[in-house]
Sequence to fold (130 residues):
Amino acid sequence: MKPFSVVFLLSCFLIPAVLFSQEEVKNDIRRALTGSDEKILAEHLNATLDLTLPDSDNTVSKNHALQILRDFFKKDLPESYTHNHEGSSNDGSVYIIGTLKTKNSTYRSYFLIKKINGDYRIVQIQFVEQ
Fold:
């Protein structure tokens, strides 16, 4: 088999796998925010991440982030989530910007996703009250 054919065949299998991984994380973010279920995010969170909420801004462990998000969703139950924009940077990281409407307020949401050890991980979450 010619070298070009091998490269072409490999890229046909590898590129969709990378895109699927990114899409899986994006879809799970949407599902988590519309269902107020932080557990959906759990499999995509990095071991440590930056978490910004209206009353806190810290670098926290995955478990601590889940506890904080659980409390946040309990206090202010999400009603809807709109995916506004997404993009990527030169280093391969992906960002998602959206609007989270809750029972008491509206938040601009920001998620930063990076590829770490072959997996796409959420390394930053922000909810800024509008």
About this structure: The CA atoms of residues 15 and 21 lie 10 Å apart.
